[in-house]
């Protein structure tokens, strides 16, 4: 068994770390043994654990756990990017969220992480022409997690959505890699226009709580949007915007604002 674990750790250090944390958690709190065994230790890979959690959380009287599990297993088996993104997202949450002390926390307890992974399966369904199923996933993610992400939206990897309540991401929105956003963020349209109508968020962007980014505008790489701002126009790279409507108030303050998570604007 130790030799097997060593091989897993070498090939998949994130999953190995999660399993070690789960074993330690069971020793510390035996009453949670069933939770950690069924959620983590029973599964050979992170993908299988994610598929289990997806089916457990989104099942309803309209769609059974078994069917949802089969859908998720199919998605993970056919698209390795889903597992790659899931690992990058776990690392992102662990590194950026001061409330996250273990790698297992996003997988087991954080609805922002779980909502994004469920969205990724919905997006896979959408891109494979299974749009009604994708809409069902979107509906259930909204009902269960309070996060509404259209399955056609494109979201990169290494994404953290902290707290996540009331986050809305529209149909033609694009979110780059290594983006951090907080609760009540909206990436929306400006009215009843159709077509490409939602924001394009660059890599490394930090979006503060309650910010609204509206319309087919571009937010440049490594920029920073202050909490409560309403952004209606393009944002250049490496700048900070704030206000209603938002205006440039300075530089981003560092090379990677989404990683540093510094939301204080120097006067």
TrEMBL record:
<dbReference type="GO" id="GO:0006535">
    <property type="term" value="P:cysteine biosynthetic process from serine"/>
</dbReference>
<protein>
    <recommendedName>
        <fullName>Serine acetyltransferase</fullName>
        <ecNumber>2.3.1.30</ecNumber>
    </recommendedName>
</protein>
<dbReference type="InterPro" id="IPR018357">
    <property type="entry name" value="Hexapep_transf_CS"/>
</dbReference>
<dbReference type="InterPro" id="IPR045304">
    <property type="entry name" value="LbH_SAT"/>
</dbReference>
<dbReference type="InterPro" id="IPR005881">
    <property type="entry name" value="Ser_O-AcTrfase"/>
</dbReference>
<dbReference type="GO" id="GO:0005737">
    <property type="term" value="C:cytoplasm"/>
</dbReference>
<dbReference type="InterPro" id="IPR010493">
    <property type="entry name" value="Ser_AcTrfase_N"/>
</dbReference>
<keyword id="KW-0028">Amino-acid biosynthesis</keyword>
<dbReference type="InterPro" id="IPR001451">
    <property type="entry name" value="Hexapep"/>
</dbReference>
<dbReference type="InterPro" id="IPR011004">
    <property type="entry name" value="Trimer_LpxA-like_sf"/>
</dbReference>
<dbReference type="InterPro" id="IPR042122">
    <property type="entry name" value="Ser_AcTrfase_N_sf"/>
</dbReference>
<dbReference type="Pfam" id="PF06426">
    <property type="entry name" value="SATase_N"/>
</dbReference>
<comment type="pathway">
    <text>Amino-acid biosynthesis; L-cysteine biosynthesis; L-cysteine from L-serine: step 1/2.</text>
</comment>
<keyword id="KW-0012">Acyltransferase</keyword>
<comment type="similarity">
    <text>Belongs to the transferase hexapeptide repeat family.</text>
</comment>
<dbReference type="GO" id="GO:0009001">
    <property type="term" value="F:serine O-acetyltransferase activity"/>
</dbReference>
<keyword id="KW-0808">Transferase</keyword>
<feature type="domain" description="Serine acetyltransferase N-terminal">
    <location>
        <begin position="14"/>
        <end position="118"/>
    </location>
</feature>
<dbReference type="InterPro" id="IPR053376">
    <property type="entry name" value="Serine_acetyltransferase"/>
</dbReference>
<dbReference type="Pfam" id="PF00132">
    <property type="entry name" value="Hexapep"/>
</dbReference>
<keyword id="KW-0677">Repeat</keyword>
